[in-house]
Amino acid sequence: MESENSVYCNCLYYSANSLARLMAKMADEEFSAVGLSSSYALLLMSVNSRPGIQPKQLCCQMQLSPSTITRLIEKMEYKGFLTRKHIGRITEVYPSEKSKNIDSKIKDAWRNLYEKYSGILGEELAQKLTSDVHEASNKLYGQ
């Protein structure tokens, strides 16, 4: 697909969505080795690294809405990857042994994803693009 021919190539909305679709496809291909979509894999990686993390913290870390985080947690809890503990009004999310057992495979897939796109873009551009997109996202989010 040649973006130069698109009448929308100078539109941030179009370009960002195009990039997001390509990255989602790449990520899902890499995380399929673990049998999970990228969203579920990243959720497990987040919980594995911070047992007892609260859903609100996951929302901030993953930049997803509370309803999306709740749905992801419920699905992973149903599949036996996570457990929730309710302490008064606070909910904490913990990894199960099943989740801990695939943590290294998830991290391998994440590393493979980075190597794949940085191999295509070049490491310098990949890091700069990541930084620029993150900065833009934060500015637009906090407007």
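Above is the first protein from milestone M3; the second protein from the same milestone is given next.
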Amino acid sequence: MKFFFRIVFTLTLFLITSIQLYSQDWRDRMENIIYAPRYFGPNGFPIPELRESVVAQRFEIEVRGEYHYYKGDKTKDFFTRVMIPVVKEKAAIEISAIVFEDYKLTPETRDERFATETESPISYNGDVIFSTFFQLLKSPKWVDIMLSLNLKTASGGRLVDARFTDAASYWFDTTVGRKVYEDPAQKVSVSVQGLAGFYCWMTNDRVHRQNDAIHYGIGFTAKLKNFTLQSDFSGFHGYENKGDKPMILRNNLRYEYKKNGLSLRYYHGMKDRLYETYTLGYIRYF
């Protein structure tokens, strides 16, 4: 009987010690995670999107599937957003979120990011982003100017695997645009846009508790009847110089039929944005 209790005691002690060691290893890894786009998943640090320089006038609901490819990380997610006009041609609110995400890392990428797992052992969701848009100027003769204020919540999961930061961030910017060609009879138009703003996110650095960045974008929008092509080059430039300078070339082709829209996107990441992204989305207009 004594021998039995010794075995139980030894096994219990071994189990408690193993749990403590794993917990300590997990905490050590968490402290080493680098809060920058290069060392997180593709949705950890959203790069502000360059839009048309006018506030949306229609209620929109969009859902889309996304696939992000990088040699060390293959990620799939499901994205959704809602655009709500508040004051006609003056103000609108948008709420967007990653509903769920799934990933597979190579051991090398896991170690580089100080992550724990190469695949998620549990299901998890991403961050929610609240955006507001205000029309500061709308002039066909001159330019259109739109102000945007954005807040990313700390609702995303799997910080332990450097997927989402579990910390709030915010950014605000101004978009300026102008139509350079328009033929109403043929339903053809081309416009150019530029964006500049400020981006800030919290980190786990005990000295520098946050990283500040200037973010930017330049692109165009071309429309032909029911088709719309939007292309832009965007990014932001943090001051810590630790993987915090992502750049992205985005292309978005939309087709609209009545109140339904189909969206095909391709994103090419550069510098600290490591991924190639392919998406397919459906939009319902009201």
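Note on the second protein: Confidence is low (pLDDT under 50) at residues 8-24.
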